Amino acid sequence: MAIYDLIAATGCATGIAHTYMAEEALEQEAKRRGLSIKVETHGQTGVDDPLTQEEIDNAKAVIVASDIDVDADRFAGLPVVMVPVAAGIKDPGKLFDQALAKDAPIYKANATKKAATSGSAEGESLWHLIYTSLMNGVSHMLPVVVAGGVLTAVSFFWGIYSADPKSIQYNAFAAMLNTIGGYTMNLMVPVLTAYIGEAIAKRSGLIVGFAVGMIALNGGTGFLGGIVGGYIAGAVIILLQYLLRPLPDKEFRGLKAIFLYPVLGVFIAGSIMWVLTAPMASINTGMMSFLKSMQNSDPILLGLIVGVMCASDFGGPINKAAYLTGTALLAQGNAFFMAGVSAACIAPPLATGIAVLLNPKAYSKDDRSAGYVNFLLGSTHITEGAIPFAAKNPLLNIPSFMIGSAIAAILTYMSKIQVPAPHGGFIIIMLVNHPILWIVYILIGSAVSGVLLALIAGHSAKKHGVTASSVSFAGLTGEEAATAIAPDIAHQTTKDYASSSNSTENDGTFDEILTEKNIVLNLKAKDRNDALYQLAELSVKNGIASDAEAVYQKYLKREDEGSTGMEQGIAIPHAQDATIHRSAMLVVRLTTPVDWKTFDSQPVDTMISFLIPEHDNGDHLHYLSDTAKLLTHQSFIKQLKAAHTPLQIITLFKA
C-alpha cells in the first residue's frame, strides 16, 4: 500500500469542472514540492480514487477543497485545511503551507455539528457549513433537473401541445416523455432539500429533508422553500441529537436512527415548514412574477443582472442562484429566462478561446491549449473553464467576462428566445425557438469579452516583459521562454532563433560568453538599481564594455519597459549598447535578496545577465534560447541555487 505525504478531497456543486481542476492543481503543487499526494474526487459520477482508512492514518495532513460534503469526520485527529473548491484551484501553494504548518488545526470528529449548534470556529465554520451544505444539495439536484428538463424539452419536437390528448398535435410517445420529464423535474425541490439536510446531519437529515422537501414542493414555495427546508431538516436533527444524548448510544443507537430521529424529525421540521409554506409561497410567487415582468418591461436590465451574476464566479453560488431561478421558472413553463442564463454561462469559456486566437503571444502554451479546449466546454454549457483565465487578472478579466455575458443575455431577452432545457449548451440547439439567432448573440458576447481579454493580456505582457499568463518557466517552449526573457529583441532574428529551439539541449555556445570571472557569488547590493549598477561596473572591469553608466542606463530602460524579474528569486536583466564590445553573460548571486517586480512577488537573489553589442549578428538569441530551455527544468534551478563555486555554475550551463 502506498503511503502519501498528503491526502485531499475535492468536490463542487456540478461535479464536472471545478472538482478535477482542483485535483490537477493540488497534484501539480505536490509534484513541484517533491511530495506525494492522493486526491479523492467527488464528481458527478461518484467518488473516484476513494481514500482508504490506511491511507488516511498514514498521511501527514489533509486538504479538503470542496463545496459539498465529503465526510470530513473520517479525518479526525489529522491537520485539516478546509476551503471552497475555488481556493484549491487558485492558490494550492497556500493550502500546502497551511496544511504542513506546525500550528495547522487538528480536525475533531463531529466538528460539523458543533459548528452548527454553537457557531464555534472549531472545525468547519458555520458559514462554511452553510455554503457546503447548499452546494451539496445543488450538486445532487442538477442531474435531476437536467434529465427531467431535457426529456420534457424533447417532447416538444412533436409540438408544444403534443402531450395534450385533446390537441391535434398529440403524440403518445411525446406524452410519455413529457410525463417522465415532469415527474423527474418535480424531484428537484425534494432532492435539493434532502441533500442540504444530509450534509448537515447525515442520513437522518436526508430522510427528514425528503419529507420537508415534498411539503415545500406541494406548498408552492419552490426552490427557495427547498433551501430553507433543508436547513430546517438539518437543524432539527442536530437539536434532537443534542436532546437525546442522555440515552446511551450502545443501547439506543438503533432506536434513535430508525425511529426517534425520523419520526420526531419529520414531525417537528414538517410542522415548521407547514407554517412557513404560505408566506414563502407568496415570496416565491412574487419573485417569479417580478422576473417575468422584467423580461417584457426591461430586458436590458434583466440581461445585465443575469450576465453579471453568471460571470461573477463561474459556477459558484452567485452563478448558481441565477441558474436555479432559471430552472424554477422552467419547471413552471417559462423558457425565456433560462435562455438568457444559458447564453451568459456559455459566453465566458468561448471568450477565452477567442482571446488566445486573437493574441496568442500574450498567453503561455498551457493557456492557449486551455483556451482551445474551452470552445468545447463552453459549447456544452460548462462555465468553469473560464476560471483559470479569470484568476490571472481578476480585477480586469472578470469585468470583461461580465460585459460579454451581459451582452449575450440582453440580446437573447430582447429577441424573446426560448430555451426549454436547463443544460446542454449547443447540444440542445434544436429545441431553441430561434437557434441561429441565439448562437449569433452568444458569439457576439463572447467576441466582446475575447477582445477585451486579449487586449488586457497583451498590455500585461508588454508591461511585465513576459507572457502575461505565464506563472513559471516550466511548460514553455524555448521560443516562448526566450520571448519572455527578452521580448524587445527576440523578434530580431527569427531564423536563428527557430533553429536553436529545435532541441532541448544547449549547443555549447556558453563556452564563448561565460567565464569564471563573469560569475560572482557574494555581491552585496542595497536594492535593484544598485545591483544593476554593479553589474554594469563588472562588465567594464572584465573588458566587456567601456562605459558603465551607459550600460546601467540600458539596464534601467529595459526594466522600465517591463520587469525582467521572473520567479523563484531569478531575474534576467540585459542590455544592448554601442559601448558593449562583445556578447557576454554574467551570473551574479546576491548576499541579500533585493525587491524586484516578479511573478511570485518574491525578492531576487540570482541575476543572469546578457550583454549585447549594438550591431549583433543574432547570436544572442542562441544564448537566450538555451538559457530559457534550461530554466524550464526545476532540477536545473535547484542546482543553480545550490552551486558554491563559479566552476560548478559553468559546468552546469555547459553540461
TrEMBL record:
**UniProt cross-references to InterPro entries, sorted A to Z:** Bacterial_PTS_Sugar_Transport, PTrfase/Anion_transptr, PTS_EIIA_type-2_dom, PTS_EIIB-like_sf, PTS_EIIB_2, PTS_EIIB_2/3, PTS_EIIC_2, PTS_IIA_fruc
Superkingdom of the source species? Bacteria
Instruction: Give its localization.
Output: Cell inner membrane
Q: What is its main location?
A: membrane
Residue intervals passing through the bilayer: 141-161, 173-196, 208-238, 258-278, 299-316, 336-358, 396-415, 436-457
Q: Which keywords, in A-to-Z order, does the entry hold?
A: Cell membrane, Membrane, Phosphoprotein, Phosphotransferase system, Sugar transport, Transferase, Transmembrane, Transmembrane helix, Transport
The residues covered by the PTS EIIA type-2 domain are 512-655
Q: Pfam families annotated for this entry?
A: PTS_EIIA_2, PTS_IIB
Q: Which stretches make up the PTS EIIB type-2 domain?
A: 6-101
Name the membrane topology term. Multi-pass membrane protein
Q: What is this protein identified as?
A: Fructose-specific PTS transporter subunit EIIC
Highest classification ranks of the organism: Bacteria, Bacillati, Bacillota, Bacilli, Lactobacillales
